[in-house]
Amino acid sequence: MNRSKSAVLAPISYSAGVNSYTALPLGKLFVIPARGPHKATIFMLHGLGSNPMPFMEGLKKHIPDYVRVVLPSAPSREVGIYGNARMPAWFNIRGQMEEDRRGVDESCLRLHELIDAEIKMGIHPRNIFIGGHSQGGAVSLICGLTYNRKLGGIFAISSFLPLHAHFPILINTAARDTPILMVNSMDDNIVPFKFGKMSAAVLMKHQLDVDFKTVNGAGHGINDAITKEFVAWLNQKLTQC
């Protein structure tokens, strides 16, 4: 277990493995170490074309001393809606009606490996959380609901549910009771509010444990209202640690 007193961000190399096909390797992996005994882990995933940096300072202010934060970087891939330019992306986005099932599967494979590593370190699955902003939240929904254990929770901020047409077949029975938080702003001009609301409705239709929160004034960013909802939900779930 990581018992480091330092909160210095440390890049960690990550080696790709091989499953039924070769998935793209992740980019740099950053960690905010637990400031005390390590009892819980949060995976925070960035959005399309971004990186972990925007989350780092904010997370330090709100995360308890016993929590380690893991911030993976998405692999670089071509993204159709940007003329096939290469950028950090958890999966390709070609258009609203075209979904990159293989890209989602590849990212989930890599993220499942990271979750497995935390469990091998002695962290109970109920004390592991995965989520993120925008595309990071989208892939977290699939990753958490296809994992073979119930996790502490899944969170998706300013996000949406990809591969919704594949529900409920995708859901791992072991993950059905994993609590989910979705927070969407009514003035989001990148992921329209209706997409978040419709995504939550699909999850609820299949009797999943979804807490859908509405805020305003955040656009596609993260404001105080979103932070408040996320921190309140997380602190409630962390009381089990």
Share of helix among residues? 25-40%
Any low-confidence stretches, pLDDT <50, length ≥5? Answer: 1-21
Protein structure class: alpha/beta
Cα(first) to Cα(last) distance is 15 Å
The spatial strand order of the largest sheet comes to: 1-2-4-3-9-10-11-12
Q: What's the total count of β strands?
A: 12
Average pLDDT for all residues: 87
Strand proportion? 15-25%
Task: Round the Cα radius of gyration to an integer and report it.
Answer: 17 Å
Secondary structure elements and their pairing?
Elements lengths: L9 E3 L16 E4 L7 E6 L7 H10 L4 E6 L3 E4 L5 E4 L4 E3 L2 E2 L1 H20 L7 E6 L1 H12 L6 E5 L22 E6 L7 H13 L4 E6 L8 H15 L3
Parallel strand pairs: 3-4, 3-9, 9-10, 10-11, 11-12
Antiparallel strand pairs: 1-2, 2-4, 5-6, 7-8
Q: What would you say this structure looks like, in words?
A:
- The protein is of the alpha/beta class and 241 residues long.
- Helix content is 29%, strand content 23%.
- Helix 3 (135-146) links the parallel strand 9 and strand 10.
- The radius of gyration is 17 Å and the shape is globular.
Which keywords apply here?
disordered N terminus; alpha/beta; 241 residues; eight-stranded mixed β-sheet
